[in-house]
Amino acid sequence: MGKEYPELRLSSEQAASLGVYYNEICRLALGNKVIHVQADIAEDSGESLITLTPELSLALNLPEGLEINLRSDGDKLRIGPLVAIMTDAFNRKRASFGSQDSFFRGLLNSMNHLHGWAYVFTPQDINWSKNRIHGYYLSPHKRSWQTAWFPFPDVCYNRYFKHSSTIPPDTPVSMARLQGRVKTFNSHIGTKLKIHKQLSQESDIAPYLPDTRLFASANQLHTMLNKYKAVYLKPVNGSQGQGIIKVIKRNKGYWAKTSSPAREFNHASLSELLKSIKAISSNRQLLIQQAIRVSGKPHFDFRLLIQKDRHNSWSVTGIAARISTNSSITTNLHTGGHVVSIEHILENRGFDYEHVASIQQDMEELALRIARSIAKNTRFLGELGLDFIVDHRGKVWFLEANPKPARAAFGQISKELRNLTILKPMEYACYLAGF
């Protein structure tokens, strides 16, 4: 007579640590799915991993032979972690997730190395009535994306970018419902203004923040230009260097330049300047920010990637110095910027080796303070892209935070660094899932 339930093969060491007996019927969980299994105990030594038998593989809809973590979870056993990566769309014609495709492949491979399982999905892939998600995964023997039904995950990594013209009406409700049910990290941290106000309350961070306000009136623009000579106007909810305007006060009027597309304007009066700003910004809410005086050209800044690990600890994974093209007011790679080392930038601006090392240390310490501050008011935050600039005297200034940072800049530094930037969020997912 065959066994009634799929077989769960345990070593004698595993069985003893978990309190499981030979032929015992156990409850085994993968995400929100729970099945019954029958324990089979061998004498070989084992770690905290199990190998999926053909029967168990079929019952869980996971690859046969997969080595996966196992732990005790109250009155049941749990394998995993099961991690889902949420995105906005899958291009069926190209069978790709677009600019994030290689990143997602790297995330899934990283989770395999951590002995868990991951899949990618969009909010439209959730079947609420059957408590499951139609997700995309990578088969061990195929390069193309495969699809299957998976349980709700232990943890969700939010890589969803809003595109207003393509969002189905029920998407925000579905996302909120999911986040109420599943631990979801790296969702929205708030607007640039909200983050600035929060950090302004921190006495050890406030001195490193440029004067930043909600753009409100011609008088305000006049006052800030008189004080700083140059300002940036930025969309409150902007990203990727889009929609930014730089304004400089000159003897015979005002010069303005946009980031995308790059256009220049010269105006004799403030009223003419305001008309151009309103036309360019399409009446979106803007921030007005003090422009920091730097040495030399072209424009540059520094992107620091701050990430949590498997122990829930913040660290600086990498620093990328970004240089704009001569014609651009932003350094984003999307607008033509490129990456060099921090030493290359600062030494070319006249800072010696010791001063460069001191600036880098100041920047890293400030970045960690900022990450911890933002995390205090954000549920489940695993990484941040933080942008800094260094003025002509060597003082570090913080510009803005991005909760969904890209990896392209770090890939230009080294393959090993890029791989580490991809591994870290999956390590943090393991922590959140208890593995």
Walk me through the structure.
- The protein is built from 11 helices and 24 strands.
- The protein has 435 residues and is α+β, with helices and mostly antiparallel strands.
- Helices cover 28% and strands 31% of the residues.
- It has a 6-stranded mixed β-sheet. It has a 6-stranded antiparallel β-sheet with strand order 14-19-15-16-17-18, sandwiched between helices. Strands 22-21-20-23-24 form a 5-stranded antiparallel β-sheet.
- The radius of gyration is 26 Å and the shape is elongated.
What are the key terms here?
alpha+beta, six-stranded mixed beta sheet
List the helices and strands and how they pair.
Layout: E1 7-11, H1 12-18, E2 25-30, E3 33-42, E4 49-51, H2 54-60, E5 67-73, E6 76-80, E7 82-86, H3 101-113, E8 117-121, E9 126-127, E10 132-138, E11 145-151, E12 155-158, H4 171-179, E13 183-185, H5 192-200, E14 212-214, H6 218-228, E15 230-235, E16 245-250, E17 253-258, E18 264-267, H7 270-281, E19 286-290, E20 300-308, E21 314-323, E22 338-340, H8 342-348, H9 353-376, E23 383-390, E24 396-402, H10 408-411, H11 415-433
Parallel strand pairs: 1-3, 2-6, 7-8, 7-12, 12-13
Antiparallel strand pairs: 2-3, 4-5, 5-6, 9-10, 10-11, 14-19, 15-16, 15-19, 16-17, 17-18, 20-21, 20-23, 21-22, 23-24
Helix pairs in contact: 3-11
Structure described in brief:
The chain is elongated, with a radius of gyration of 26 Å.
The number of helices is 11
Contiguous runs where pLDDT drops below 50 for at least 5 residues: none
Strand content: 25-35%
Molecular shape: elongated
